[in-house]
Amino acid sequence: MTEPFDSIRPPRSFWLVALGSLLWNLIGVMNFVYTVTLSPETLAAMPEAERILYTDIPFFVNACFALAVFSGTLASVLLLMRRAICVSAFLVSLAAIVLQVGFGLWLTPMLEAQGAAALALPALITLFAGVFLWYSRRMAALGVLR
After folding, report:
1. Helix, coil or strand: residue 11
2. 75-113, pLDDT tens digit by residue?
3. Does the residue 71 lie in any domain?
4. Is residue 74 part of a domain?
5. How many CB atoms lie within 10 A of CB 132?
6. N or C: which end of the chain has fewer CB within 10 A?
7. pLDDT digits over 103-144, tens only?
């Protein structure tokens, strides 16, 4: 017989990971808002190679960016609420990140403008998204999420 949900206590790491994922994803939301609301003055002050990275991005790359950060934030809130549906939201976020990074690197001159260092942050973001997905799946399997 299985234990009732209320008697299953999350491990100590749960709240730390859940709050960390929310903070991480809120930083992503702030970055998205900053990116899509850059003023003409700010853009004009950038070197041309960097400015192109903001002005010549295809709509669907920005749409993937929005989907990634907002579904990740929703997933984090659902994780804090101990809802198993957070696993699906983290999966959507990871898929959107992979699409955004893939198309962003393929369709923009990011590597030419920033060199190999341009790969570090996308790799870190993808890693964190994968860890949050793995952790939420683990918590669901342990019965911590309902």
Report:
1. coil
2. 999 999 999 999 999 999 999 999 999 988 887 777 777
3. yes
4. yes
5. 26
6. N
7. 888 877 777 777 788 899 999 999 999 999 999 999 999 999
DSSP 116: G
| 16-20, 35-39, 55-59: least confident range | 55-59
Overall pTM surpassing 0.85 (yes/no): yes
In this structure, are residues 34 and 69 in contact, taking their beta carbons and an 8 Å threshold? Answer: no
Residue 2 lies inside a defined structural domain of this protein:
no
Q: How many domains does the chain have?
A: 1
Does a structural domain hold residue 1? no
**Amino acid at residue number 144:** V
132, 102, 133, 108: which is closest to 53 by C-alpha?
A: 108
Report the alpha-carbon distance of residue 42 to residue 128 in Å, rounded.
30
Q: Which domain holds residue 102?
A: 14-141
Show Cβ contacts of residue 67 under 8 Å, excluding neighbours closer than 6 positions. Answer: 92, 93, 96
Neighbours of 72 (CB within 10 A): 29
Neighbours of 108 (CB within 10 A): 18
How does the average pLDDT of the chain come out, rounded?
A: 92
